Amino acid sequence: MDSTSVYAFPFSQFIFLILLVTLQSSVLLPATSDTGFSIEEATVHDLQLAFQRNQLSSRKLVEFYLKRIESLNPVLRGVLEVNPDALSQADKADQERKTKPRGPFSALHGIPILLKDNIATKDKLNTTAGSYALLGSVVPRDAGVVTRLRKAGAIILGKATLSEWSHYRAKNAPNGWSARGGQGKNPYTGGDPRGSSSGSAISVATNMVTVSLGTETDGSILCPSDSNSVVGIKPTVGLTSRAGVVPISPRQDTVGPICRTVSDAAHVLETIAGFDINDEATFEASKYVPKGGYAQFLRKDGLRGKRLGLVRAFFARNEAFLQYTFRNLRNRGAILVDNLEIDNINEICNGLSRDIALKIEFKQALNAYLQDLVDSPVRSLADVIAFNKKHLKLEKIDEYGQDIMLEAQKTSGIGKQLNEALLNMTRLSKNGFEKLMRSNKLDAVVTPFSSFSSILAIGGYPGVIVPAGYDEEGEPFGICFGGLKGSEPKLIEIAYSFEQANKIRKPPSLFFL
């Protein structure tokens, strides 16, 4: 979760005038292979072509990222652990391409990926949610999404840092901080990386990996993608398996890609989406997975004819962004439906029902996850709290307390309070976002930044965020497209069309290194 899911940037002049150029610093390594192929900012498609043309090998690609991590990560803190088997996985991919030079191989074959450290891997990597309490625990199996990645031939490069326990430990803990990983930094500003999937966004933004996975309960993919100038897809809940993921809420949790481009994110989503026997939510949501996958929706004219809703409340303090959005979307053929309102927006955003439900669900879901582990120092939320309390005086192990966990531990499970909260959120979604979408025949709602995350979260709706520019301080911001359940194909069309029209993303200057 993100600790500040609704906020505004200080726009004092027309935005998009300041785009940072890459600093050729001595801390950065050459970004080209021996054959002259440029690895930095290369897309999955670029890399696959380089493999086919013998311009690059998976081993060389992994070696580049490992050196990049060694150089940048001590300051940025985006990577928690590197997989000791990454190079052997790369060699396997290279050998497979030699054996079958014409494939067929998936888009992610031989491509390195980082996983947020709440996604289980049954290998030499830890899965700890950033906490020392889970260090050394043994998971029973790969997470469902990891099984799919391995089948596709992706290389598990390592684990990305995160806000500890997906920012569901302490209210005053800063974004991007965990006991194990330290404080992650936004590579554009040196400041707040935002969101609990912070390390996934930091690492992709700085070319420490090709693609990554994050998780979202409320804002944890959309927020760091917004602030680190990358693309994030928060899928419909259940579209991707959560089995083997350290949970907060099975009702809201979802796993999705964080990448530099919409095309890369579509390829990752295509790989990880679908039915998993270990996650019952995928039973129903698997009907939304399109035949032929998501890459088929990468259309430059994807905005043409799309009805996009603009809820003015989210643009209230960002008139420059509003006018920019109007012009660019209309120029690409979108039909803008303006001056829309969500009647219950204040009730949704104050989050009372959501907060009640999450605390109850967290205790139940975390206890179930911990009890399923093969081996673990902790077996319940109560054990985690006791561990944190025991290590309170050790520097940087319990620096920010655990008030959220303490509140969750006091809950007593399924009962009247939870049922009332769930019924209220269902009412708010149906009479709010769903009514807005259907009564105006919208394909998506457009909002600045990640300000729509709570509305998408409580209903399990998808969202895609794309880099949209940089403010006068050089801080990135994005534009978010949200839709009804299963609308990922439309959202990808819209997001890709916007991205291709603007191509606004630039790698960070890393001026503070």
TrEMBL record:
Q: Which UniProt keywords apply?
A: Membrane, Transmembrane, Transmembrane helix
Q: Where is this region: Disordered?
A: 173-200
Q: Does the keyword Hydrolase apply?
A: no
Enumerate the spans annotated as Amidase domain.
Answer: 61-450
One Pfam family cited in the UniProt record for this chain: Amidase
Keyword Glycoprotein attached: no
Please give the SUPFAM superfamilies that the UniProt record associates with this protein: Amidase signature (AS) enzymes (SSF75304)
Q: InterPro entries from the xrefs?
A: Amidase_dom (IPR023631), AS_sf (IPR036928)
User: Which stretches are transmembrane?
Assistant: 6-29
PANTHER family documented for this protein: AMIDASE (PTHR42678), C869.01-LIKE PROTEIN, PUTATIVE-RELATED (PTHR42678:SF36)
- Protein's recorded name: Amidase domain-containing protein
- List the source organism: Stylosanthes scabra
